[in-house]
Model the fold of this input.
Amino acid sequence: MYVVHFEPAGVDVQAPAGTLIEEAARQAGIELNMPCGGQGRCGRCAVIVDEGKVRRRSTLRLSPEDVAAGFALACQTVIEGDVMITVPPQERIERRLTTEKQAVRVVFPYPYDPQTQQPIQRFFVSLEPPSLDDQVDDWGRLQRELRRRYGLSALTAHLPVLQELGRTLRQAEWQVTAVVELDTWDRPQGPPRLIDLLPGDQTAVSWGAAVDIGTTTVTAYLVNLLTGEVVARGADYNAQIGRGEDIISRIVYASKGQGLVELQRLVRETINTVLARACRRGKVDPRQVHKVTVAGNTTMLHLLQAVPPEPIRLTPYIPTVNHWPSVRAEELGLAVHPQATVDCLPGVASYVGADITAGVISTGVCDTRALTLFLDIGTNGEMVLGDCDWLVSCACSAGPAFEGAGVDCGMRATEGAIEEVWISGQTYEPTYRVIGNERPRGICGSGLISLLAEMFITGVVDKGGNLNFHLPTPRVREGRHGGEYVVAWGSETEHGRDIVITKVDIDNLLRAKAAVYAGFSVLARSVGLELSDAEQVLIGGAFGQYINVEKAIQIGLLPDVPWEKFQFLGNTSVRGATMALLSRDMRRRVAEVAERMTYLELSADNTFYEEFTSALFLPHTDMDKFPSVAAVLRRGNGAEPASG
Done:
């Protein structure tokens, strides 16, 4: 066993030869960011080996100078002796989550009636105390009164409720409120189940929670089940980010050692944090939350329930579960009432999950005859086309580029991120806006889209993303990784280094946007339609809130249709989860959408590669598909851009 000393924490741990530095760090209670899931691709878990012997399996993302200075990738470096390691400050996740403090209104297509739509009901009963003349047991006495007064028959309860039953009845002097779940989606005929027994008459309040587990962000709504009102919300970064920024990285991490258990713990802790925050704002005891509805992509729900997700990434890409049975909160360790039902909503396939089925319901796709293209763009681009009489869906791997990962100066949308860029067509000088009005530290996804569009429109890059070195500006130059454009000089930045976008970065962005555009092109072609036939384009997800639609069209990320057809709807997943929480009918409709939706596996579709290749240009090889962009280029250059 070797001694591993970590600074600046000042912690020692013992580890056998061959132990990865990241494993020793975890043993020491030190969190390291590993956005690639420990595959050695991102370089963000770099530490400094001050003393001792280690063996670097990989130095990807490290220069010879970095290695000479002692840097090593914690996920790719094993311990071969006593070592002293310095852990540099880890990137703090500070994305602006101000939206969690805004008021929320979830709109139903019809009036909300808790008596007929809500399966969680509260019943006040006043029981006759037992006597020598009436020696019915406590449980039988409660069942008898609920049956007599409210017609509840065959009432059931789990052991923890029965263990507290007698004490509660006597302390409340036989005046109690029974919290009863009449049915669940997988037990539509009941029998009713006693969740909780409360002293006195507490029928004036009833609480539930809707949760969306995003790959990046977890959001929770605290919901009044009597009025249907969302009274408070909480949001925070999914703590799993440190083990992988995209779902594939997390699946890989889950397959290693105790990775699955750790990822479940991290998402559980995040959910409990945001639930506690929402309950604190709503002045509600979390134990008063008696039902939770959860939406999320297929991988996130597998990780929540600690179901191994490996089959999701392996041919033929079949998840273990699409339609989840209901479980109790105590089985998942959620900090609400232990007997609360947790209902994970159904998904369609490995890469079209409950976040999409919930989104379809909450956006009203099924309440209109308009042909709709519904998009949720993140590390995966998930999309649905149809009008709810028919629905066809697919998903493509956009990668994390649009979230600032895999880009040389990319970062999440945190304080200090450049979020929008403008470039002068005369001087090629940029101006930019930074989150938090601070000195910039990098560029986030919306900034990258804006930057790439501006570079194309002003001629800094051509249709293939190649930099124009003939421009009269020092900002276009050769860098360590080839050609690059300087967005901010080191004298302007917080860290004193130039912020640039490289040709490699541009190629990553082109591949990401090409995958998304090819996805909905194949979707439309599969049903004999053109993208221009869509009567509305609905964009869900937090990322969609920050996209500049004009710039997204100019790079070919979104179809070139009139702007009025676009609606950016924010987190449609959590709103759909809220609707399913409140209404039996809405919960049933989510299941029907999941059953009805046809899924196209793009890896098995020969036309996807053709569409992808055609979309690897700005905005596309076929400029006829982007007439508004062609018009902008004509105005700027005085010439018609070439097609094909």
The chain has 17 helices and 27 strands.
